[in-house]
Write a structure and sequence with these properties.
470 residues; alpha+beta; nine-stranded mixed sheet; three-stranded mixed sheet; 27% helix; elongated
Length: 470
């Protein structure tokens, strides 16, 4: 190769090299007021951009933090939001630092395949004074009784019976808990479960506390029983609240224990309770609100109709259930039960005797089957017919009714109560109703027309309610 050619090639390569160097240096100079060519921050191209511009672009990458939810052991929830403490995310300083740390002369490194770009995190700031104030005012601390004031005691209520109130367990630590809240908030945690985080602690028990807990265990065992009584359509519960009142105590108010160390029942209290219970839920002889055929609401007092709970049987059952800690459903035993199901336990099949209008009605399943004029007891002579709710005791044919001053033969006899019944009265010669009963009434029975009482006698069943009223 000729020397002139070599010189020419050398000059050409030199020019190219100087051009490349010049271009490289030119680009380094050109981007001196911004990020170098090919710079990437958090995946965003920053070539030639000022730190301020890049900070604006990165603002959209700020974390989305909805705040901290604090869960207490009793299920309550408290929340601290970013707005509560003026929480901010700022990329300006991290971007400025990245800008100052770059070397414009080495921008070519940004073009290498190994270049991964720059990753930065925003500066996080919030008003710590506001956070401290919010935490200090949380309802969490409202019931935090001073440790030296905490008690272990037994209380009693109508629903749960004996209840142990132990103020020395599950106490929120007032020192570690706030610090944990600050830590969780700083770390952008969303939930702090105080129980799971171990924020609750127990205090040591005294000997008196231990004795109280031991007594409560005995009382809890004593009241471990419940009876769900089904009385007609009503459900009545005898549970811990009631049974707790049956515990036997001495004159000093201390519970009396048996040889096995168990609480003893007070049978006198149980008898008083069951006496009130049977009277309340027995309908035998009770007053009833009755709607008459004429549409009146009358109070029918007394009588022999209804249910009578067997007090002795139910008292013995309660004592046995308590001794065996039963939880059961029961229908009470009745010493008398002649009731039909329905409103006021009379039902829809009954005999209605309205002595004001001197009329008898007989209903079957709510339908009026027959009605008749009647004559009831003589008011002038003091033989007024009984009032109340009774039932048909029996029926008979061809009966002679006898009293101190009378003897009467009847063909149809429907017995209601003692010597009182519903029967025919041929001696009245078809005259019934009106005001006959006031001066010429019966000795107390319900005199009825022959055809009507015959029909009633044939249809009515033993046990059918009979309602008599004025």
């Amino acid at each position: 190769m000729k020397r002139s050619v070599k010189i020419g090639l050398g000059i050409s390569f030199g020019i190219i090299f100087l051009s490349v160097i010049g271009l490289y240096l030119g680009l380094a100079y050109y981007y001196k007021n911004g990020f170098s060519y090919g710079t990437k921050i958090n995946g965003i191209s920053c070539t030639g951009k000022t730190p301020e511009q890049v900070a604006v672009d990165l603002a959209y990458q700020a974390p989305t933090y909805e705040g901290l939810r604090i869960l207490s052991k009793d299920g309550k929830e408290y929340k601290i939001t970013p707005d509560d403490v003026d929480l901010k995310y700022d990329f300006e300083k991290p971007v400025e630092d990245a800008y100052l740390n770059q070397n414009a002369m080495f921008w070519g490194m940004n073009l290498l395949p190994s270049y991964q770009g720059i990753n930065i995190e925003p500066d996080v700031s919030y008003d710590k004074d506001k956070l401290y104030e919010i935490v200090s005012k949380l309802d969490l601390w409202k019931e935090n009784i001073p440790k030296d004031k905490r008690k272990v005691e037994i209380k009693q209520n109508n629903n749960d019976g004996f209840v142990l109130v132990n103020q020395k367990t599950d106490i929120l630590n007032e020192i570690s808990t706030p610090n944990l809240v600050y830590e969780f908030f700083d770390n952008n945690e969303s939930v702090l479960d105080l129980a799971k985080a171990g924020c609750y602690e127990d205090l040591p028990l005294t000997k008196v506390d231990e004795a109280t807990i031991d007594l409560f265990d005995k009382l809890k065992s004593f009241q471990d029983c419940s009876i769900e009584y089904h009385i007609g359509d009503e459900v009545v519960n005898i549970g811990p609240g009631a049974i707790a009142t049956f515990a036997l105590i001495d004159e000093n108010g201390d519970y009396i224990l048996d040889d096995n160390g168990n609480i003893q029942p007070d049978t006198e209290k149980i008898n008083v309770f069951m006496d009130a219970f049977t009277k309340k839920y027995s309908t035998y002889g009770s007053n009833r609100v009755f709607k008459t055929t004429e549409g009146r609401n009358v109070i029918v007092e007394g009588g022999t109709y209804g249910k009578l709970i067997d007090q002795e049987e139910e008292t013995n059952f309660l004592l046995d259930a308590m001794s065996r800690h039963l939880h059961t459903v029961r229908t009470p035993m009745y010493s008398q039960d002649n009731t039909f199901k329905g409103a006021e336990d009379i039902g829809n099949t009954y005999i209605e005797i309205d002595m004001t209008t001197q009329h008898l009605y007989y209903y079957v399943d709510g339908a009026l089957i027959l009605d008749s004029d009647i004559v009831t007891g003589n008011l002038r002579l003091g033989h007024g017919t009984i009032t109340g709710t009774y039932s048909v005791l029996d029926k008979a044919r061809n009966v002679t009714l006898r009293g101190r001053d009378y003897e009467s033969f009847v063909k149809f006899w429907i017995h209601v109560h003692r010597g009182i019944g519903i029967h025919d009265a041929s001696w009245r010669h078809g005259k019934f109703g009106g005001e006959i009963y006031k001066t010429n009434g019966s000795h107390g029975c319900v005199n009825t027309r022959h055809d009507e009482v015959k029909q009633l006698w044939e249809l009515v069943e033993i046990g059918t309610p009979v309602v008599l009223f004025y």
